[in-house]
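Example record

One chain of 347 residues, shown exactly as stored in the release files.
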Amino acid sequence: MAIAAMHLEREGRKESSPQSTRLYSLAMAELRNSIDDGSVDYLGLLTTVLTFLFIEMFRGTSNTWRYHLSAGWKYLQHHCASGTWTSSEDAWYVTQSFYLLRIESETSLEWQDGVDLLEDQISSSEDAVSLERLSRYTSFGSTIGASGSILTRLSEINRLSRQLTQTGFGDGADPSFLDLEEVPIPGRNMNVLMLELGSVTSDDDQECISVEKEAQQLHLRAFEVATVIYHHQIFGTSTPEQLAPYVHAVLYYITRFLEICGGNYTLWPVVIAGVEAYTDDEMILFSTLFENAKSVGMRNRVKAKQLMEGVWAIRSSIATETGQTPGNIRVNWRQVMRQLDIDVLLV
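Predicted structure tokens for this chain:
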């Protein structure tokens, strides 16, 4: 009901604002009472916390959503026996949701802030859920259009990013810290990427590949390529110009995804690629994708667009001041997020 009231407020019904706040407070009080008297079970509590988290995303509130994620994560790790999270399809999905959100949330962290990986809070109990155990399920990651292997790589990049920060390494760090076999860094150009996509979506194949399957494959490809970009952002020295083939590929895959199914796509690949855009044409295309993404009503997506545009503005300013071409200017989007006082969950 709180979410419904927020939607009405977004549509211009200002009288819904106090109502949404009241309903939110009532729901939070009921959750606390249920925890105190022990009447809420594993599935019920995590589903409720997840709902609160998404309410904050609809509100567009920076930072607050992290409190819900942290609380849900701690509960999951301390109370989730293996028989619990596998007891039903709903329990499985809510468990994997917290893992997906945990991994995506950590891609935007700057480790010098002193934050801890949620992974460090995992219980030592043999019954505790681990990423390794979850990723064995073929459907892991599918709810955000990714896969278990991609999310395992992202988690490893996050872990190594913190490790490199703590040991004093910067760009060009010792590659022995990274198992390159576990990170997709293909030596492929744009033409090869397009040829591969063509092999998936050719007319001859349409008879045996459903629209849904094709859309899933396109979104998965976008996630894979964005993971390559993210790896270079964290560990490499690649400029936007050097990353351009991957940026173009993400644009192509997501645009094609929209043409096929018109569905909702995950923001993470779009933001990761979008911050590396430097030509007017690219920036217009990414802005268009964000206008489409904002239509689902999540205000955090407005903040994500502000972040992307903030990176573009800084790159343009540096180019003007130094005479460099924008394609040769690296900008750390995570630092820009901090400068703008934005903390957005890219889902």
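Notes: The radius of gyration is 21 Å.
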